[in-house]
C-alpha cells in the first residue's frame, strides 16, 4: 500500500446487511465519510435457473419463475406464460386475460408495499414497514383463496390460469379496494411528506434521463426520471389497451427530477393506479373459460421469441429458443433489477456513506432476480 | 427569518402528524392485526397447498405425478399384481424437496387420489423424517411372469441395438 492509497479505506457492505435487500455485497472505497467508489459483487443467490430451464419441460419451468422476483411472482409467471403462448400461438380466453390482469396488478401493489416498507425501514423509520406488511397480508389472503399459496403462486399458466377464482374472491377484492385509498393517504401523512424524510432524499442520487437510457433502467426508476415509458401503454398486452389508467412521471416535486424521493413516490402513485385498474377489471369480469385448451405435452415448433412485460421493478423479458422438442433449447432472462443495479457505482461516487443505503433502497432491487 | 420559522413549523407539524397516526393505532384495540400464533391458529382456506397426501388404494400407478414433478420429489415404483393391475409398491414424497407448486395434483387423472392437505406444520428433526411413505410395500406379484420377462428381454434387445 502506497501513501496515496492510505487515504482510502476499503469496507465491505454486505453480503449480510439488512439494507441490501438480499445478499448483495458492495465493496466500498471510502475517503472519510465520502465514498470514492462502489463495486457491487453479485452471485450469492445463483441457482442456475436458465440452465434448469434447459432440463425441464415447458410447463415444469413455470414454478421456477416464481423464484425470480419472489415479491412479484404473478408478474413473472405472466411473462413466462406469454412467451410460451407466443411460441405456440395460443389464444387466451378473455376471462383468463382479465384474471391475469387482476392478479398482476394486485401483485404490483403488494410488491410496491414491500418497497415502501423496506425503504422506510432502511431510512430509519420502522413503523411504515409494519403498515406496508399489514396491507400486503390482505393481498396475500386474496391470493391464498385464489390459488392456495401465499408467496410462490404458480397461478398464471401457459394457456390461462391454473383454476377459476372461488366465490367470495370478487367481494373480498372490492373490500380491499375500498379500504386501500385511505391507507395510502395514511402512508403519505406518515412518511412521504415527512420533513425529515424529504430532507434525507430530495436531490440525492439524481438519475438524468440520458443516464437512465444509457444504463437500461426501466420501470418506476425510469419514470421517476421524467420519461413516460410503460410497456402496458407502449406495447399493450392482455387487455391493458381497454383500461383507463395514468402513468405517473417524476416531476421533481421536492428537488430535482429523478432524485431518490421521486423514485420512492412513483411507487405510491403506481399503487393508486393499480387499484384503479383492478376495480375496472372486476367490472369487466364475465363468465367464460379460465384456460385455453392446452395439450399435456407441449411441443412448440422450432423458433425463437422474445416477450417482455412490465413488472413492478421494470421490464422483465424472456428470450426463448425452441428446437422443436419438449424442452427449451435456451432461455435467457432479462431481469430488470440487474440493469437497475448497474447504475449504483455511478450514483454512489462522491456521496456520503449513509446515502448509499438510500440509493439501494430507492432503486428497489431484488437479488434472486439478478443472480437467477 | 420568517422562512426559518415556517420551515421549523413545517418540520414539527409533519412529524407530529406521523406520530398522531402511530398513537392512534397504539391506543385503539380494534386495530390489532397480529395473531397469537401457537395458541391461536388460523384455518387455511379451501384449496390451500399444504402437505401432499395420496390415497394409495385408488392410485393406478400411472406415474403422471412423478413425471411432471419439476424437482423429482416423488419416487414411484410399480408392480403388476395378480389381476395384472399396476400397483404402487413404493410411493415416497420428499417434503423437503417439494415446492408445493401443485403440478402433480393437476396431473393426477384419478379424483381425490393425490391432493393437498391443509396441514402446514410438519417440521422434523432429520431429513429422513420429512419423507412421507405411502407405498403398499409388498404386493402379491402376477403369477405368470411372462410379461415381466418380455419387457426385460425387450430392454436388453434395445440396449444391444444401441
Describe this protein's structure.
The complex is a heterodimer of chains A (372) and B (162). Chain A has 372 residues and is of the alpha+beta class. Chain A contains 15 helices and eight strands. In chain A, the strands form three sheets. Chain A has a three-stranded antiparallel beta sheet. In chain A, strands 6-7-8 form a three-stranded antiparallel beta sheet. A two-stranded antiparallel ribbon of chain A has the order 4-5. In chain A, helix 4 (94-122) packs antiparallel against helix 5 (127-147). Chain A is globular. The mean pLDDT of chain A is 87. A three-stranded antiparallel beta sheet of chain B has the order 2-3-5, with no helix packed on it. A two-stranded antiparallel sheet of chain B has the order 1-4. Chain B has two domains: 1-34; 52-142, Alpha-Beta Plaits. Chain B has helices at 2-27, 64-68, 103-107, 146-161; strands at residues 52-54, 74-80, 86-94, 114-116, 131-133. Chain B has four helices and five strands. Chain B is 32% helix and 15% strand. By secondary structure, chain B is α+β, with helices and mostly antiparallel strands. The longest helix of chain B is centred in the first third of the chain and has 26 residues, at 2-27. Chain A binds chain B through residues 56, 59-64, 66, 127, 134, 137, 141, 144-145, 147-149, 152, 154, 162-163, 166, 186, 189-191, 193-196, 296, and chain B through 7, 10-11, 14-15, 17-18, 21-22, 33, 44-49, 68, 70, 99-103, 106-107, 116.
How would you name the oligomeric state of the polypeptide chains in this document? heterodimer
Helix content of chain B: 25-40%
Principal-axis shape of chain B: rod-shaped
Tally of strands of chain A: 8
Q: Which percent band covers the strand fraction of chain A?
A: 5-15%
Total beta strands of chain B: 5
Number of helices of chain B: 4
Strand order in the largest sheet of chain A: 1-2-3
Terminal residue distance of chain B: 93 Å
> Which class of secondary structure composition applies to the elements of chain B?
alpha+beta
Content of β-strand of chain B: 15-25%
Overall helicity of chain A = 40-55%
Q: What is the arithmetic mean of pLDDT of chain B?
A: 80
Radius of gyration over C-alpha positions of chain A, nearest whole angstrom: 21 Å
Strand order of the largest sheet of chain B: 2-3-5
